[in-house]
Amino acid sequence: MPLAGASGAAVPAADWVVLLLSPWALALFGLCVGSFLNVVVHRLPMMYMRGWWAFDIAEFALSDKRSWRSAFGARAEPPRELAAAASAVHRQIEASTPLSLARPRSRCPHCGHTLRASENIPILSWLALRGRCSACKAPIGLRYPLVEGATALLFALVALVHGASWQTLIGCIAVALLVAMALIDLDYTLLPDSLTIPLVVIGLIAAAAGVSIVPWRDAAIGALAGYGVLWALGATWAVLFRKPNAMAEGDMKMLAGLGALLGWQALPGILLVSAGVGSVIGIGLIAFRQHRRETPIPFGPYLALAGLAALLMRERFVTLAEDMLPFLGG
User: Fold this and answer.
1) How many domains does the chain have?
2) Which one of 40, 121, 195, 321 is CB 3.0 to 4.6 Å from 125, fit for a cystine?
3) Least confident window among 47-51, 75-79, 169-173, 284-288
């Protein structure tokens, strides 16, 4: 089985590489990655929020006299209540357990029970524990095994589509990033730069190295177009309706990453699918009163869904916009 890039040059792959990049091997690895993604989805927003409170609120907005006087006048003094609030934020941060993606070990969010190795096996532990904490018997969300299983399935599908190739390695990295982005945006309407930017960088580096499914020029145009299209749509909305930009910068970076990974040709299809699915689900949620009309609906999950589909069926997405023209009045 060859390792090939967009240029078509092929290099024979060793038997062990073929085995490691086989659907079954990647499915098993995907279970472990999915377990880690559950940690990322839970902790990364907490880490961002702590940083936001520590710097933007405590350091700048609450305790910086110069910024207060710049806003309210050279002689204005910040209220004492703000300084007290800043001190309270600092105390809370200092009292909190240091948090990273690796430390502390996984634990029950209800009682703090540290999970043993036998309780941390993807899917199997959840089934063995019957979806409950072994210590306090609080329910463990069904989403945990679903994320693990979905990641395993997506890894296997990428291997089936691309074989033992660089595209499979790149595709699995993209799957992990997109799954994490979708869930974080769904929970917090947040798309961290630590996830969106790597997607752009990986797409561009792979194309520059000749191991992407698209050449460098298409990847570079795709990154620029992905960011620019959503920026233009959001800016147009803001001008026409005199409201804030409807598109968050995280969405722009995410689509830029998909453009770098899949080329500019796939972007119309990705936008059509994500907008279509998002509109149907959004209207349904509003109709059944599961979502308030004035509350923004995160776009990241729908971009991720369309991006994952395009990763597996790129050529279909490239022709999708052309196929839809008759229905759109083109």
Assistant:
1) 1
2) 121
3) 284-288
Distance CA 134, CA 119 (A): 8
The pairs formed by 313-321 with CB atoms below 8 angstroms and a separation of 24 or more are 314/213, 314/262, 314/263, 314/266, 316/269, 317/262, 317/266, 317/269, 317/270, 317/273, 318/265, 318/266, 318/269, 319/269, 320/268, 320/269, 320/272, 320/273, 321/268, 321/269, 321/272
Residue 70 belongs to some domain of the structure = no
Confidence of residue 206 (pLDDT cuts 50, 70, 90): very high
pLDDT at 7 over 50: no
- Find the DSSP H helices in 53-76: 65-72
247-267 burial: b if 16+ Cβ within 10 Å, else e: bbebbbbbbbbbbbbbbbbbb
Average pLDDT over residues 153-161: 97
* Total residue count of the chain as it appears in this document: 330
d(Cα 149, Cα 155) in Å, to the nearest integer?
Answer: 10
Let me know if residue 273 belongs to a domain. yes
Helix H or strand E segment including 228:
helix 216-241
pLDDT at residue 67, as a whole number: 77
Give, as one character, the DSSP assignment of residue 14.
P
pTM of this structure: 0.87
In a domain, 189, yes or no: yes
Provide the domain limits for residue 309. 165-325
Exposure string (b/e) for 124-148, b if CB count within 10 Å is 16 or more? ebbeeeeeebbeeeeebeeebbebb
Burial of 165 (0-12, 13-18, 19+ CB in 10 A): buried
